[in-house]
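Bug #77: duplicate submission created two jobs. Keeping one. Sequence:
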Amino acid sequence: MEVFSLTAVWLTLILLLMAGLLMSGALRPDLAALILALGLSFSGLLSPQEAFSGFSRSAVIALIALFILTAGLNRTGVSRALGERLSRWAGDSPGRLVAGMTLLSASLSLAMNSVTAAAVVMPMAVQAARRIGLAPSRILIPIAYGALLGGMPTLFTTANLLLSGLMRDHYGRSLTMLDFIRAGLLPAALGLLWVIGVTWRTLPERSPAGQLMRLHRLNRELAELYGLQDGLVELLVEPDSPLCGLSLVESQLASRHSVTVIGIRRKGHLLLSPSSSESLQAGDVLLVAAGPEGTAPFEQALRDLGLRPLPRPVSPQVLEEGEAGLMEILLSPHTTLIGRTLRELRFRERYGLQVLAIWREGQPLRARLADERLRFGDALLVYGPWERIRLLQGDPEFIVLQSNGEPLRTSRRIPAIVIMAGVILASALTSRSVAEVTMAGAVLMILAGCLTMEEAYRAIEWPTVFMVAGLLPLSIAMTRTGAAEELGTVLLYGLAGAPPWVSVLVFTGIAAALTQVLSASVTAVVWGPIALRAAATLGVPPAEMGLAVALATSAAFLTPMAHPANALVMGAGGYRPRDFLRAGWPLWLLSVGAITASTVGWGLGLPR
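Kept job's structure:
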């Protein structure tokens, strides 16, 4: 066979193109995966049936079921009950609180998606940290890392499910729950000890979005944090203003001048958070939130519209009047709003709330918000009636950082725990496929009343499902074309004659490095077939190599884009990208070494 066949070269080019699209952010990952599946079909590398076979694969069915099981645990308040007990146990000790919340995040990751586990723990951790005066920046990275580490010793992680399926495709034997427990416990335990003992103490103390949670000070301090005290201005509507009789949306003040009207003072009464259909009248005094430079850049334009800035100062305390207030919300892991603008979403009309600022990468954005495309990890400072803000607590698009949440089905808590425990035990002790076991558990969650069918549909992260289904046929193409074998040729030459543990260390390190720039799912599908093909030649049991690569995809500690759990806490913790690198590199090295030791040791005298 040629060193590199034409089909292998063609497939490699497709892979490089997809990797470039993912790293550049030019396309959503789910869309890139679907384009990949189409490319494999149109190029003739796979038949149409094979190109779309990912939608029927066991890993995808199990993934859908796990989203439903996770929702059942959350809807019945299992996660919140654990968080409240840990908070009481921690008392006023920052170390105990970090330890408790990190371990809770890791524990939840054993049975649910890692980013969902981090999202569940984050609001509880922020509120508990505020209670004892601990900066959220000291606890949120540990929660994200805990979720990643907790995903190692379980089958219920996307990358682990994918590698289990690849093992079955290549060698007729899936990796089981017990396999991951044996191999993953050591690196997970060592990693958690490092995070709890060292990592949180090295993190910076910052005042990020989500820091100020006491309701009696919330409006005032949030206004100061986002710089609103410099941007609150009053505009008098002159009698000859052409805006008289027009609604707020018709006035185009927000779209043209970045001026957000948050109140109208009329005949001695202040109407806060007015509807976009509210008509302007002569003599109205508009309370507006302008950009960081106030109204100075377009003061002449405002005068032409018959709006005269009033010289008196405006205190942020005015925002405390009435039944309206400020609140910070984060985009949830389930959000469909990434890449869209507030204008496209018609945010104010849709939610009855105004976005006054966006917190991104440690800085507030206050200018031209209507055209700012939303990113995962953004925190939005919203203003409006409390009843509207409370409605967001049940919206899957957002996480409200200060929230009592909608009523939970606590009466179904025991059935939810029993069902989840049964799924874990059945996955570990029976020969049934993980798809069968998890889907049975998901159906039981619904039948037991832990959540409704509509809630189950909403719980499924369809972008993740489509991304994984689109990527899975890639492993078929890599094996059939010989690309998996050929791409590993260079490494095989370099590792010829090396001890098996050295080969496992190299392949583990490469997988852990790729995960920092690609997602864990992409790394598993791209690097998994190469590693499994190389295993036999290098004298490494395939199960060891498959486990090592799977566990390495959880070592996503170095960049905020390495895993959605990192991106999720970035805005709420006020982190910068270098914070993840500084906190994560010792943990990354420790994990790569521990994974190698654990997987190589796993093969000694144990079933392969």
